[in-house]
């Protein structure tokens, strides 16, 4: 019996740049302080027994698992085993204990946190090193081809590259990642994370529809990916057809520009400008990409009316969390206004916390 290995991975907040990843665009995530931790005890066996503190029963899976064998939460673990195995790497058996610190179904990438923590634990236990982009691809493969959710690389790259007090500018065309200082508290501004508790999921459905619409729009515009139009956004946007696919493309193109503008504003510590970009992103997700809900819109709009510098839904959409940049002294009042508005509309009371950029996955 080898020594146990502990590895943890955070959830992420995408500050801005939604649904841009599979369009080879830009995004700007940070890591959450909340993390998922995996304790792996390798043993000389060809099965892996996985327990989660959130589930009653452990799951036993064969190291030769293939898509379709395991469903539910353990499919993310089995998917990593399968993806590593299919890439030709040896995966040891043993027991794994998962402690989940990231809220699930909230747009905070709890699935990718689990994948990256499992992957890191297996790699450490077997003395394998894979660079972070390769790790991200293995974890993504687990999600796409084992679990069946057609997601991009945002969550895994965000989690693997995150650094304390920084956001990461990811360029999905060449998968390069650049750190951008992100310390609003140093400027009297707080980042609020407002969990609506309206759960979402990405296996199929609306997420896949948006992806298909972007691909159709790119083809209609004669390019492989919408990113190919990025150096002439104003003209392209002005000429986009007023159709559903046209609006989907407009969101992606304008959102990429907002990510770059946010990075520039952060370099100037201009949180007023960052806030306006967040709100513009929220409006684009609401009107053009149509991935928000009335509940989410209510939270974001109430926060801004109560004095937030800006607010937007974060993550894949159709529920989950809203982030708001707020002047420190307005924190309580904005939280109270959001709670009152959701109560008034008959929604469950949101959980509201001030948060910050945490560190990335590690042992
Ligand atoms: C989910 C997916 C990501 C990304 C976001 C939207 O989190 O996992 O790949 O597409 O939605 O930005």
TrEMBL record:
Nucleotide-binding in keyword set: yes
Gene Ontology CC entries for this record: cytosol
Superkingdom: Bacteria
Domain GHMP kinase N-terminal intervals: 76-161
Enzyme kind, highest EC tier: transferase
EC number: 2.7.1.6
GHMP kinase C-terminal domain span: 263-341
One example GO MF annotation: metal ion binding
PROSITE patterns reported in the protein's UniProt record: GALACTOKINASE
Keywords: ATP-binding, Carbohydrate metabolism, Galactose metabolism, Kinase, Magnesium, Metal-binding, Nucleotide-binding, Transferase
Entries under PANTHER family matching the protein: GALACTOKINASE-RELATED, MEVALONATE KINASE/GALACTOKINASE
Name of this protein: Galactokinase
Species, as recorded: Mycolicibacterium frederiksbergense
């Amino acid at each position: 019996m080898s020594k146990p290995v502990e590895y943890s991975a955070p959830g992420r907040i995408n500050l801005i740049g939604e649904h841009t990843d599979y369009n080879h665009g830009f995004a700007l995530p940070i890591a959450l302080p909340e993390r998922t931790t995996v304790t792996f005890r390798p043993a000389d066996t060809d099965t892996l027994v996985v327990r989660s503190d959130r589930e009653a029963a452990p799951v036993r899976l064969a190291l030769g698992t293939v898509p379709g064998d395991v469903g539910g939460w353990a499919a993310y673990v089995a998917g990593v085993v399968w993806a590593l195995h299919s890439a030709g790497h040896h995966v040891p058996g043993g027991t794994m204990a998962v402690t989940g610190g990231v809220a699930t179904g909230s747009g905070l990438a709890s699935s990718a946190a689990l994948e990256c923590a499992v992957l890191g634990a297996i790699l450490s236990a077997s003395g394998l090193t894979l660079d972070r982009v390769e790790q991200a691809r293995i974890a993504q493969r687990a999600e796409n081809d084992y679990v069946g959710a057609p997601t991009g690389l945002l969550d895994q790259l965000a989690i693997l590259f995150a650094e304390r007090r920084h956001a990461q500018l990811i360029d999905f065309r060449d998968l390069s990642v650049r750190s951008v200082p992100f310390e609003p508290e140093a400027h009297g501004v707080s980042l609020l994370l407002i969990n609506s508790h309206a759960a979402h999921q990405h296996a199929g459905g609306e997420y896949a529809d948006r992806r298909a619409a972007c691909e159709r729009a790119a083809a209609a515009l004669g390019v492989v990916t919408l990113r190919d139009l990025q150096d002439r956004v104003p003209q392209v946007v002005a000429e986009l057809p007023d159709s559903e696919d046209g609006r989907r493309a407009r969101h992606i193109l304008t959102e990429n520009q907002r990510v770059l503008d946010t990075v520039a504003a952060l370099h100037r510590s201009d949180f007023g400008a960052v806030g306006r970009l967040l709100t513009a992103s929220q409006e684009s997700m609401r009107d053009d990409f149509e991935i928000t809900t009335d509940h989410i819109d209510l939270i974001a709009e109430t926060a801004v009316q109560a004095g937030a510098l800006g607010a937007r839904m974060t993550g894949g959409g159709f529920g989950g969390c809203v982030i708001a940049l707020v002047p420190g002294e307005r924190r309580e009042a904005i939280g109270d206004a959001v709670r009152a508005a959701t109560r008034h509309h008959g929604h469950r009371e949101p959980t509201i916390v001030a948060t910050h950029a945490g560190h990335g996955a590690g042992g």
